[in-house]
Amino acid sequence: MPWATILQDLLEYEKMLVITLQSCLFPLLPLPSTCTKCKFTIKPYKMTTGGHNLHQELLQWRDFKVLEEDLDGDNFFSPQIIMSNKILDRIIDLAHYSKIISTTALFEQTYWCYANLYSPEILKIIKTCIPLPRPPSPKPVASVSVPVLSSSSIVNQHSLAPNPQSIEGAGSVDVPSVK
């Protein structure tokens, strides 16, 4: 058998082994859905004092977290290693429209990698600076007064019945009456 044929057979066998090994190590899993929840589109708005307060509180929180996590020596990333300015601004915008009410909403709207870890603290800061709007109170039902009928105010039923003589005279056609 020539060496070229043996070498070619070995290469084909190696490919088959690699494919078998890959299928054992990395079984085919169903791919995750590529559909993601739509992000809320921020419309232009004028920032309120609550928004400014939220901005300051988030900056202070972020600086505190950098110290707490012992990341203050990182001059390259600075406090943005915890929360980028882009995510911070997005949280402020979403809080203005009351769109961050849970950890899930925070993650779905920002894709912040630390949403699960820090969301309770972030939600607390949001609620202190920009409280959720109260649901509208139900409108009062218009009261209708219904008169109470007494026995003296009940009208005699016979007085409400039409007079048969007036009915006969009302028509233009004479109909003989049967007695």
- Average pLDDT score: 77
Largest sheet: none
H-E order: HHHHHHH
Low-confidence stretches: 29-34
The coarse overall form would be elongated
Distance between termini?
A: 131 Å
Helical content (DSSP H or I, runs of 4+)? 40-55%
Question: What's the Cα radius of gyration?
Answer: 40 Å
Strand content: under 5%
Per DSSP, the total helix count is 7
Structural class: mainly alpha
Number of DSSP E strands:
0
How would you portray this structure in words?
- By secondary structure, the chain is mainly α.
- The chain is built from seven helices and no strands.
- The protein has helices at residues 3-25, 49-68, 85-96, 103-110, 115-129, 157-160, 164-170.
Structural features:
mainly alpha, 7 helices, 179 residues
Topology:
Elements: H1 3-25, H2 49-68, H3 85-96, H4 103-110, H5 115-129, H6 157-160, H7 164-170
Task: Give a concise summary.
The chain is an all-alpha fold and 179 residues long.
